[in-house]
């Protein structure tokens, strides 16, 4: 996507990908899905530094895998970074879920001890009922069929974060506004998932609405599936 005001990070920009991975990895330590997943390492004595190393390595590979498909963006000062793509531009990719699985498969065997790998694999299976990342395309098709959007194309965000040192600086708004402007221009929905009341409220404040939740006995967290519809559709 051409997004005035922010930059696309390309596969050859290894330093920027690494910086983005550090921002995402550190920020997502506080995100409930990853926090719950990583809590499986507590009984093995993993401290914050160990968890942060795992997160940085994972996001480094995830961004490297997504970058060839126009899916990694940042503010020009690297205060905030986003993983997100326009579905029509992402059509040549193996699929977001496949790329995530490749990221885990590439990073974890080399980085983890056998005990850590077993613990995190069990945690992933435990979280599977609240880990639906395929719903957005179906929702976009349904909205288009109902006449709510001009097309079933859509923007999907798989991650975004602000550098902890830049929180409260307006970096988040600078990051997301170009995406929203492009979505409004194209008449397409934006999608994301979150797992906390705080994030749900934040995303509602910037125009998203909750359209579905996923819960399961004993899991302890709820997946909230959210959509931001284009302003043209809202106006109608």
From TrEMBL:
Q: Where is the N-acetyltransferase domain?
A: 94-228
UniProt-recorded Gene Ontology molecular function terms:
acyltransferase activity, transferring groups other than amino-acyl groups
Q: What SUPFAM superfamilies does this protein map onto? A: Acyl-CoA N-acyltransferases (Nat)
Q: Which domain of life is it from?
A: Bacteria
Tell me the Pfam families matching this sequence: Acetyltransf_1
Q: What is this protein called?
A: GNAT family N-acetyltransferase
Q: Source species, please?
A: Candidatus Aveggerthella stercoripullorum
């Amino acid at each position: 996507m051409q997004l005035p005001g922010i930059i696309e990070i390309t596969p050859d920009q290894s330093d920027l990908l690494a910086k983005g991975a550090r921002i995402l990895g550190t920020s997502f330590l506080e995100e409930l899905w990853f926090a719950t997943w990583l809590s499986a390492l507590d009984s093995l004595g993993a401290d914050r530094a160990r968890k942060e190393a795992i997160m940085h390595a994972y996001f480094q590979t995830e961004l490297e895998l997504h970058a060839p498909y126009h899916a990694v963006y940042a503010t020009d000062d690297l205060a905030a970074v986003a993983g997100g793509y326009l579905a029509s531009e992402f059509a040549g990719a193996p699929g977001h879920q496949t790329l995530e699985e490749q990221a885990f498969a590439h990073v974890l065997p080399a980085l983890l001890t056998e005990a850590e790998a077993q613990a995190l694999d069990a945690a992933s299976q435990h979280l599977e009922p609240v880990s639906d990342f395929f719903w957005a395309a179906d929702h976009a098709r349904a909205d288009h069929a109902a006449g709510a959007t001009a097309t079933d194309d859509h923007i999907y965000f798989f991650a975004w974060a602000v550098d902890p040192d830049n929180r409260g600086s307006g970096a988040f708004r600078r990051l997301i506004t170009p995406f929203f402007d492009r979505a409004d221009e194209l008449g397409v929905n934006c999608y994301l998932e979150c797992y906390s009341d705080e994030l749900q409220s934040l995303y509602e404040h910037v125009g998203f609405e909750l359209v579905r939740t996923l819960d399961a006995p004993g899991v302890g967290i709820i997946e909230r599936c959210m959509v931001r519809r284009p302003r043209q559709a809202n106006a109608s």
